[in-house]
UniProtKB/TrEMBL annotation:
<feature type="domain" description="Alanine racemase N-terminal">
    <location>
        <begin position="10"/>
        <end position="233"/>
    </location>
</feature>
<dbReference type="InterPro" id="IPR011078">
    <property type="entry name" value="PyrdxlP_homeostasis"/>
</dbReference>
<feature type="modified residue" description="N6-(pyridoxal phosphate)lysine">
    <location>
        <position position="35"/>
    </location>
</feature>
<comment type="function">
    <text>Pyridoxal 5'-phosphate (PLP)-binding protein, which is involved in PLP homeostasis.</text>
</comment>
<keyword id="KW-0663">Pyridoxal phosphate</keyword>
<dbReference type="InterPro" id="IPR029066">
    <property type="entry name" value="PLP-binding_barrel"/>
</dbReference>
<comment type="similarity">
    <text>Belongs to the pyridoxal phosphate-binding protein YggS/PROSC family.</text>
</comment>
<dbReference type="Pfam" id="PF01168">
    <property type="entry name" value="Ala_racemase_N"/>
</dbReference>
<protein>
    <recommendedName>
        <fullName>Pyridoxal phosphate homeostasis protein</fullName>
    </recommendedName>
</protein>
<dbReference type="InterPro" id="IPR001608">
    <property type="entry name" value="Ala_racemase_N"/>
</dbReference>
Amino acid sequence: MSRADQLADIQKRIAMACAKAGRATDAVQLLAVSKTFPLSDVLEFHACGQTTFGENYLQEALDKITQLADHPNAQQNTPAIEWHFIGPIQSNKTKPIAENFPWVHSVDRLKIAQRLSDQRPSNLPALNVLVQINTSGEDSKSGVEPADAVELCKTISALPNLKLRGLMTIPSNTENTDQLKAEFLQCKTIFDELNNQGLKLDTLSMGMSADLELAIECGSTCVRVGSALFGARSYPK
């Protein structure tokens, strides 16, 4: 199957899920998760019209950003590729993230948000951020506890060089649809509460290759799709 066909299949799944939920097709953005795959694969999808790509591992992402800038056809890569950082964030990684990405999906504590704000270069627009909510309750997952999410989001929204755009969650690794739906809806409830309190959020990053239809049913505005586009990943040992 060609890259164009793979992309079209995912776009069709999104469109059908939107129609079933009574939502406009353009209400949901596709973020192609390119972690562990080379820049050449990214460029193949970009040539088919995909412009937003998510990366989990900082050094790998920075390498791709550098390679793209040095690419012989860099000036022809229009519209430009937009990189989203979606992985866990350690304090010693905030500076390069603040300097190189327009979007961050995985802010989960105030210290990280403050560092991103302080280290965002003055010549760049405010960094778009999502607060990650740990709806599964698993210790192995990053994210703020749901009970603490509203207070954290309000504090982050006041930081000078960040623009709080919404929330992100990674649900439990389960095939139990009821459990997944409950976790997605918990995140949507927090999202709605924050909007009702005047924060004007517009992005709810929920859903991946296996569960994007359910996430869209629950209100997702951004699905993060990797393996269904790029294929199975091979992680270094």
